[in-house]
Write a structure and sequence with these properties.
The protein has 605 residues and is α+β, with helices and mostly antiparallel strands. 61% of the residues lie in helices and 11% in strands. The strands form 5 sheets. It has a 4-stranded antiparallel sheet. Strands 3-5-4 form a 3-stranded antiparallel sheet. The protein is elongated and about 140 Å long.
Length: 605
């Protein structure tokens, strides 16, 4: 994640948030703090720097006709000591010059019909006691008889309009059929001369602005420092000291891969912001990144809580184990088919449960596969059914181990593996987050428990010599004891470490046994669901009798209602208990906190 810090006037905030909403990728938090004279000055300075940088990045005169003159003149310019102030002055002066040029263009256009004339000669006419009158009328309104009635001279006739002048004696009550227009202030060539002077000054302004581009990096650094200083100042301010205005301090987080697009959009908005990589101290929102299989189970991770920024994402481990646990608790291949059909039906529908149609289908497939391995199909014991092929029966998990049902032993074995995996994850994650010195106790317990399980399994499967096993166990115990009792808190009094180790031992011994036994529910729920399904089958068969007629109707009703109830109860248990095994047994032993904030970007629905 990348952290973006924005400082806005409060009245600008709503507009800014609407623009962020259009982008749809930034998770926003905001706060409000009062403005005082100092913070207002700092904000104004930052605003000027930001506006200067934005403007200088757009300075490009390569497409203008006088680009060569601008570039040549820029070589004679220097970067100002205060570029922001100098750019402001140059921009204002350039705007004035361009406005004057535009005004002269309009003036030239109005003078062109009058042609070139000498202003001094017109003054001589006035000295002789004569007044000049200037007119412009549309061609169709010009009356040629005027030339017979008045001393009139046509100056220009472009086919659409006619420009002409008349002369009268000073003081004479002179009247003409059309309204008089102001006398031209000079000839068009005079406008050209003035515009040439303005053009030379415009070239100099643009040349100096082009040279100031060299200060962009310095201005950006100064802008970033100014915002940092303002942020620090506001953090130190007493928020109860009210002032006339208020600032909105907006903090946003967005995925790093969106940086380029966001910077382009934010620069176009002309807002003031700081960008920096998010850190753990910022507690940024977390966006989980899982493939298609893991994404289906992210909703379950969210039920417990998102990982913090430097914590591991448990979803890739939660997903396969939850699928296995759910399937074992259901324990019936027929119910897996029903779940798959339900998932297909929900596809394309709207609503809460419909959003998880993919997950329901996957759970259905898993339930079908595990149900076949456990040998149950709508309450029917497939292992003892004569119509089931022998090759399929050989794939089923049936029998006993040391007088215990093999399915129960399997459930406990899965629980031991699940907890051992959690302990290894905790040791690795704690080391990554806090360092090895702060994780010696965790490594001690992981080495003792996981190592002990591995040694026990190897001894039973590989028939290791007992003297080898003895020395391996002694080595594991010795190394683990150092981490648990002596170095569990490096630098602390050894007696305190031993006391803390004894307390950890009590909690570990009492907790681990209960954690492992909790996994028997995987066997018990599957067994209970299968037995209840078989009970409904037997009840339906009793109703059917040996020579059924109308009894078929009640037979079907009992099967549908019975297995419908059993399916509903099994789904409830198969959802709740695997979550319990994950949230309590696994998360506790893996050290997962889940106190992070989910990534919820501000976007249009």
């Amino acid at each position: 994640m990348t952290k973006y810090s924005f400082i806005l006037l409060s009245e600008m905030t709503d507009t800014f948030l609407n623009q962020i909403q259009e982008l749809g990728v930034m998770d926003i938090t905001r706060s409000v703090k009062p403005i005082d004279a100092d913070s207002s000055a700092m904000l104004e300075k930052a605003a000027e720097l930001k506006q200067t940088v934005t403007f200088l990045k757009t300075v490009d005169y390569s497409g203008e006709a006088d680009v060569d003159a601008i570039v040549q003149a820029s070589k004679q310019c220097t970067v100002a000591d205060n570029p922001a102030q100098r750019v402001r002055i140059l921009r204002n002066r350039l705007a004035e010059l361009e406005a004057q040029t535009a005004s002269l263009e309009r003036e030239k256009h109005s003078r062109l019909p009058w042609g070139e004339f000498d202003s001094h000669k017109l003054e001589a006419v006035a000295q002789q006691g004569l007044d000049m009158h200037y007119y412009m009328v549309p061609k169709k309104k010009f009356d040629p008889q005027w030339e017979q009635l008045h001393p009139l001279q046509v100056v220009e006739d472009d086919g659409k309009n006619v420009w002409f002048v008349t002369v009268s004696e000073k003081g004479e009550d002179y009247r003409f059929p059309v309204d008089e227009i102001p006398a031209p202030g000079g000839s068009a060539s005079e406008c050209d001369h003035k515009m040439a002077e303005l053009s030379r000054e415009i070239v100099l302004c643009k040349a100096e602005l082009l040279r100031q581009r060299e200060a962009i990096t310095t201005l950006e650094q100064e802008y970033g420092k100014g915002l940092s200083d303002l942020d620090l100042y506001l953090a130190k301010c007493n928020t109860e000291s009210a002032a006339e205005g208020k600032l909105s301090l907006v903090v946003g987080f967005a995925p790093t891969e969106e940086d380029a697009r966001l910077e382009t959009a934010l620069d176009a908005m002309d807002v003031y912001y700081l960008k920096e990589p998010a850190t753990v101290a910022d507690n940024p929102p977390v966006k989980l990144k899982n493939r298609w299989f893991g994404r289906m189970f992210e909703v379950l991770t969210g039920m417990y809580g998102q990982p913090v920024y430097n914590e591991f994402d448990p979803t890739p481990i939660l997903a396969p184990f939850f699928l296995l646990f759910f399937a074992m608790c259901m324990g019936d291949a027929g119910y897996g088919i029903i779940l798959y059909i339900i998932g297909c039906f929900l596809k394309g529908k709207d609503g809460g449960l419909a959003k998880s149609w993919r997950l329901i289908k996957v759970l259905g497939v898993g339930t079908f596969v595990v149900g076949i391995l456990l040998g149950t199909f709508f309450g029917i014991d497939l292992y003892n059914a004569s119509w089931v092929p022998e090759w399929l029966k050989r794939c089923m998990i049936k029998g006993t181990v040391a007088g215990f049902d093999v399915q129960m032993i399997l459930a406990l074995g899965i629980g031991v593996f699940h907890i051992c995996l959690a302990m290894v994850i905790k040791a690795i994650n704690n080391t990554r987050r806090f360092g090895f010195k702060e994780s010696t106790s965790v490594w001690g317990w992981t080495l003792l428990i996981v190592g002990g399980v591995i040694v026990a399994a190897a001894t039973m499967l590989l028939h290791l010599p007992m003297n080898v096993v003895k020395w391996v166990v002694i080595a594991l115990a010795a190394v683990s004891a150092l981490g648990i009792f002596i170095f569990n808190k490096v630098g602390r009094n050894p007696l305190l470490n031993i006391g803390a180790g004894l307390w950890d031992t009590y909690q570990m011994v009492s907790g681990l046994l209960g954690d492992v036994l909790s996994y028997i529910r995987l066997f018990a729920l599957g067994l209970a669901g299968g037995m209840l399904g078989a009970a409904f089958n037997n009840l339906a068969m009793m109703i059917l009798g040996s020579h059924p007629t109308y009894e078929w109707v009640f037979f079907i009703i009992v099967l549908v209602i019975g297995h419908g109830l059993n399916l509903a109860m099994s789904c409830l248990g198969a959802f709740v208990h695997p979550l319990r095994l994950t949230f309590v047994e696994f998360f506790k032993n893996s050290g997962y906190e889940g106190k992070g904030v989910a990534y919820h970007p501000l976007k249009n629905n």
